[in-house]
Write a structure and sequence with these properties.
The chain is mostly helical. It is built from six helices and no strands.
């Protein structure tokens, strides 16, 4: 296997582990709140910023690691070449004259990588500004309220 394949496999596995850990944290938070409400504590809030933050804290290093891998992949131009291309017969492509010159393709890829890196940098800056402004807490509180209303707990 090539380094690109290994990089993509590690990134995919890391994302799957993060998703599993976040889901487990949400389920344990819900189970804790449901148990407290079953005991008769009707004013116990299952989802608070502090509790959600406590469940998120162990996963944060993995999230930052995945984010770092993603940024490194964008900067280095790591991608699965076969993922974006449909299966085609090379002989037919040559006969039809659809194969581009390699230099034009590389130049377009370079511009695309630069654009993706710029968009990623702007997104990260805006996310950090939002976290500093307290937007993360507001979104978490609103999301928790919507979830508890949809499930019928609130």
């Amino acid at each position: 296997m090539t380094r690109t394949k290994w990089f993509l496999i590690v990134q995919a596995v890391l994302c799957a582990v993060i998703a599993a850990l976040l889901a487990a944290g949400a389920l344990s938070l819900y189970a804790e709140g449901a148990a407290r409400q079953a005991e008769g504590d009707l004013f116990y809030y299952m989802f608070t910023r502090e509790k959600a933050g406590a469940r998120l804290a162990p996963v944060l290093p993995l999230i930052f690691c995945a984010l770092g891998l993603t940024i490194a992949g964008v900067i280095l131009g790591v991608r699965d070449e076969k993922a974006e291309k449909p299966v085609r017969d090379e002989k037919l492509l040559r006969e039809a004259g659809r194969i581009r010159e390699k230099a034009v393709h590389q130049q377009a890829d370079r511009k695309t990588r630069i654009l993706r890196a710029a968009v990623l940098a702007v997104a990260l800056i805006l996310i950090i500004i939002g976290i500093i402004n307290g937007g993360l807490e507001d979104v978490l509180a609103k999301g928790a309220a919507i979830c508890t209303e949809c499930v019928g707990l609130g």
